[in-house]
Amino acid sequence: MAEHEDWTAADDAVVRRAMATLRADVESVPLADVRFVKARGQARRRQRLLTWGAAAAAAVVVAGVAGYAALGTDRTPAPLPPQSSSTTSAAPVPGYAALPTLADWRTDLKVDATTLTPVSTPPTVLCGVPLPSGFVDGYSVGADASRPRGFALHFRPTGATGTQAATALAEAVEKCRAPYTVLPHYRDPFGAAWVTSDTGSGYVGVVSTEDAVAVLVYTDPKLKADPLMAGFGDLLNTAQSRLKAGESSGAASSSSLDQPGALPLASEWKQALGLTATVRLTPVKPFEAVECLASEPGTKVQQEQVTADGAQFEGGQVRFAIGAGQDSATAAEGITKDIAGCVAGPGFKVTMVQTNGFPKLFSYTAGDAGSGWFAVVVGPRDVGVLQVVDPSHATSVYTEEQVGALAKTAMARIKQYGTGTSGTSPTTSAPTFTGPKAINEDMPVSGPSLKPSSKLFVAASQWTSKALTRGVTVTAGPGALEGSTAVVDCETDAQQAAIGGLVGVVSVRTGAGNASYIGKQRVHVDQSTDPTTQQGYVKARLAEAKALYAKGCSFPTYTVTATPGPTEGTWRLDAVFKDGTPTQSQWVGVTAQRTPGAVSTIVITRAADPKQGFAELDRLLNLARQK
Amino acid sequence: MAVETGAAVAPREVGMDAQSAEAEFDAFYRDTARRVVHLVYGFTGDLTVAQDATQEAYARAWQQWSRVRTADDPLAWVRTVARRIAISGWRKRTTQERAYQRHGVHDTTGPPSEDRVAVVAALRELPDPVREAVTMHYIGDLSIEQIAHDTNTPAGTIKARLHRGRALLAQALRHEETHHG
Predict the structure, then answer these.
(1) Do B34 and A27 touch (CB under 8 A)?
(2) Element containing residue A96 per DSSP (H, E)
(3) Which chain B residues are Cβ-neighbours of A16 within 8 angstroms?
(4) What span, in angstroms and rounded, lies between the C-alpha atoms of A454 and A578?
(5) What CATH number belongs to A454-625?
(6) How far apart are CA A483 and CA B131, in angstroms?
(7) Are residues B99 and B20 in the same domain?
(8) Hey, are the CB atoms on B98 and A500 less than 8 Å from each other?
(9) pTM for the predicted model, two decimal places
(10) What is the mean pLDDT of residues A59-68?
């Protein structure tokens, strides 16, 4: 997109008009109640890594409940719970190891609860969807058995993970509107939900682990007009802690170590730290500096950012290959000194927690920036550093035991799969390719701030051919449509914006001007580490392409018709103009790449020999597949 | 982990009772919050994210109200914090968008209008610093000098970004109008 030097008042009016449409959107939704905003400030201090990611937390909106009926489709409030056993005890009922105790309810909610009554038959429906199978136990809670105010149910779902079941519940709760007033902004970002209603105020909360789900509900007319959920959030924290207690923690099992990787996998981060949100490892490319390291002990060969969807958690891991003739333990000691003496900002203080041998552990506090941990691990020819960042707590919620377990996993992996080990050999057969071998070139990749590496793109020089450019050398340019990831007719930015994952575009040209561009390659990369998810992502992109390109599209001044190519996933798109302008052809193809989760779209916008358009496209796609 | 329990409490105020502090903060929030939502919405193109970032910024302001209220411009403080929160979120937006799609969060704010889709799409084409300058100027009604101060960027740079951004935006929006009549 070229720069405009001819700025006019009309342009100004266009922009102001556009911005006004956003203002209308803002004013069409209610402003969150100031009481909730203030409560949120307090809640931040106690936030924990509950089951919900940001999105799920946003989705768990809010259903006030006075009974199961409110959770289901029946609009008539019913007693709570629907069916309890005949045994009622004024004393805490034994058992319920995975649920809050009576004392927890009294302490956290400050309610006058004196009775837990076992639930013998749980409800089957929550907001119109089935509750998970695998009911373990549950109880109602209240001042006496005849007037229950809340309840807790514990499930160990079969056929789905706890997290999956909880996500389904979250979606159901989000749609659960009646008979209570749903106020989307009155939600605790960390798993609780609140609403007012004619029958009082209520809470719904769902927490989960990999294996289990707990549903907690509490309603009380006295809570009317009280949006503060700090107490209920604490109760959810307790519930999740109790669920987690049933799961093993610690170093990775031998079975997970069967999966290659010189640093912990996402599942291992999740298990060791007790994270319940989806954990993602995102490669950091190009490599970035590592906090607190004054110098790097070797060649950086692996660096990943660790995130948990929606959770206030960040992490990272990096691995350095130590040069021949150097001792990795000595190099690791150097890193240890760097970290021990690190002052990364005001109030930054590091404490060495585990000093004997490796792994070494350091906790740190960083003033307003929260707290965290470092772990230094060492292998025969590698040194690794892991960092756990807890941005919201002055003292990390992650324990030495948890971080130590993660570090032990890292030690096991770096020894088994680190540099020079047999484990670094590919364990799966790589696809074989015929024809020219793809090479790498450093090229500008345009797109959003997080972009795929240029190594995933066909080298610009390999676009050069007699049929495509008459032998004129091709180079990569900044792109004629700066900022747009749509590369071909029939695509729009809005359609592209709906596609997740990393995305980048490399534009290639035969000269220096904007008129010399001959084609583009766009690469989408799924950021998950789960092979099934990656395959699903790639299939979705291929299906989209087929649906989008095969049917062509129309614009006010021209129509685009599609002609399938001889190879699956290729088309020629002909733009036929209504004013008699000569038809313009583009050749577009889409293919999965060797990198898991990567998909390429290649478009040739100008070919020296149009008859060779499809052949050239196939040649470029073959190069892309190798990456 | 030690957790706090109970309801939210007003921050301790020096020379100001808690009730006055609450009333002052409440008024500040009522008077200014929509402007901040609007600003962040323009920057992120996501109303839900904008609402959350704004709430978070005001929540942080309340936590340290005794300090924020005495700042030269409390609104500038909140605006900056909200913007930073949003920028952080914006960097993770691909993951977030997928999650939102998965969970259908946008349903809570109603379907986007065609106009909004076009504007958001046009804004997304702008590089982050350019979009920041455009939204602060056109939505936040901030002068070049104020933007320069808030972003710690030379005024000349802001001026250039603004010029470039509005030209790109106008071009994109005119293109959109042309395509859709």
Answers:
(1) yes
(2) none
(3) 138
(4) 39
(5) 3.40.1000
(6) 12
(7) yes
(8) yes
(9) 0.33
(10) 25
